[in-house]
């Protein structure tokens, strides 16, 4: 009897069907000399710290680090998982088993799922490994005909086990240490080997975006007239095409206007060949789906998994390769035959032109466990797919078809024109053969490059319409899942160590199979949130990064070094014993560094910005992680605070100093209302509290004489109304007519306005009237 263990019930059902196993038992199938059972993902897990001693139940710094001499494992605390484990355990303990066949997913995590079950059951029977890249009937039959020895995957198991134990050691100890240190501030502070550097990248980008101050620059354009036509050209020197000041740009334009005669000084023409794009690995598929459809990485993975497992029309999705092996490349004609009729035009083109797969996509050395994601040979029935599944399938099918098309060939012309001793440049593009781009009509980057007229070297030019255009520098874009996935995959660019760079290039932060899970974990622990496809850190996320500072836990280099060793271990080039010793040492270092960190109430006060503006308070305004607040707040309860972010706008130190010195700031641009609308405002101090004023104050309050009349979203009202209850208010709309700031100012300063037109009565009739201010309330005057 052969006992087969799969990762999911659906896979067990498919294998049973292919092998002719028809009898369904409780928790397994039986027949034809096979018993086929299934896991439910992980059935066995690493135990929590209290399993190693009652001293670890309470979270105390004195008990850290927790480093077990031998890790203990138990069953997942779920009735269904426990029941299924015992089914598999009973099958594995039967006498006279010929072999145990591991048929879990062909990857590191799949290997771990099976091996933990196998080890906990105490089974001693030899292991055979089913290693396939699709769930089609053909693939399953071929896989069972070519089963591998389990010994060939022992090193992969070592790598998987080491990764899990390292994550446990770092995660458990760092999370406990940081939570104990800063528990009063934010609750449980989840820290992890992979999630923390990812969070750091998101926080850093967010802060760079918020702190960015746009700078103006100028560009000068001309219309260059040659014998056979005209073209646009832009001023450029050897370093930049941007001019820092308006005066300099206007001077260039004036020089050209005065002396418009110029000459072509450089003319280069070249043919550019744009190779077919690489096939998809999981990360690139997730990035593309996020860019095009705003799908999350996790959602794309679920869709791809459904196309692989349920529909069987996609190859194994959790791959890190974008290439095919030579053996798989030989089967592509069957894959083409399985594509649905919607791709008939492309299939006819490939057949009629006898196109073959692009050689650059076939490379055995670029494949570790699985080849790139491609359609399977099974005929896809699009009507059976959900609309979202169909979108993912179309991405993969279209990319696979592109692999059979020729390169895109473009002719590029670069021109330099000198006019009045100033150089202007232009680039033109003519598409000679769209090639594979014919499958991607939405790619309009080629069309944005103009076509130039026929130009001769050293030809005379007449420069017309010199024009100065104002431009603004743009803030670094907030991270989307697409951009952060790209950084997770290529985090090695931040490392100076070439070997680390190569390891990160191959694997980066996490693996294709775990990156979506990492992002979802950061959302689950409330470190980041999704807003309109952007990843935004929460206050808690920023807080933990501030506490970590430049700790090695925030560096992608750490993951790169460890990931390289894990890969080497899977290739039998690194010892598990050495790896675990490094991890244990690092865990000890984490605890030592956290103990040495100042807790929040020990944090140095930092820069003092000035006396607290609250009357009779003896404190000073100092910086804290989230705000600039009174140094005496714990002693006296002083509530003076200037938040570092107000209405999604960062309040800078210069703003705080100005506010404390002058009682108000200059107009600050870029606030955002709850509805998402942008607005500008001034910050003012009223009785030591910060208020937001929309525009300049209109004048002294005519009712209480102590406040200023300021703009709010709906009215012009007294700045002291929250403290004094001053009733002064001029609504921004009266009788369906908008009241301008000038009209409101007239009311404040003189008590009345001129006669105004455009009011509408409750009966819907238009009328004119002057407005007068009476006790802080607006009334009509018809005299």
Known CATH architecture of the largest domain:
Orthogonal Bundle
Overall residue-averaged pLDDT value: 89
* Helix/sheet category: alpha+beta
Globular, elongated, flat, extended or rod-shaped: what is the shape?
Answer: globular
Which value, in Å, is the CA radius of gyration?
Answer: 34 Å
Question: Low-confidence stretches at least 5 residues in length (pLDDT < 50)?
Answer: 498-503
- Distance N to C terminus: 106 Å
Count the DSSP helices: 23
Topology at a glance:
Blueprint: E1 2-6, H1 9-19, E2 23-25, E3 28-31, E4 34-38, E5 44-46, E6 73-75, H2 79-92, E7 99-103, H3 108-121, E8 127-129, H4 137-145, E9 148-149, H5 154-186, H6 195-211, E10 216-226, E11 229-235, H7 246-258, E12 261-274, H8 282-293, H9 297-309, H10 326-329, H11 332-338, H12 344-352, H13 387-402, E13 408-419, E14 422-433, E15 460-472, H14 481-489, H15 498-506, H16 515-524, E16 528-531, E17 534-537, H17 539-548, H18 556-570, H19 576-596, E18 608-611, E19 620-623, E20 627-630, H20 633-636, E21 641-643, E22 645-646, E23 649-650, H21 653-662, E24 668-672, E25 678-686, E26 689-693, E27 699-700, E28 708-711, E29 715-718, H22 721-724, E30 729-731, E31 733-734, E32 737-738, H23 741-750, E33 756-760, E34 766-774, E35 777-781
Parallel strand pairs: 1-4, 1-7, 7-8
Antiparallel strand pairs: 2-3, 3-4, 5-6, 8-9, 10-11, 10-15, 11-14, 12-13, 12-15, 13-14, 16-17, 18-19, 19-20, 20-21, 22-23, 24-25, 25-26, 27-28, 28-29, 29-30, 31-32, 33-34, 34-35
Helix pairs in contact: 2-3, 3-5, 5-18, 5-19, 8-9, 8-14, 9-13, 9-16, 15-18
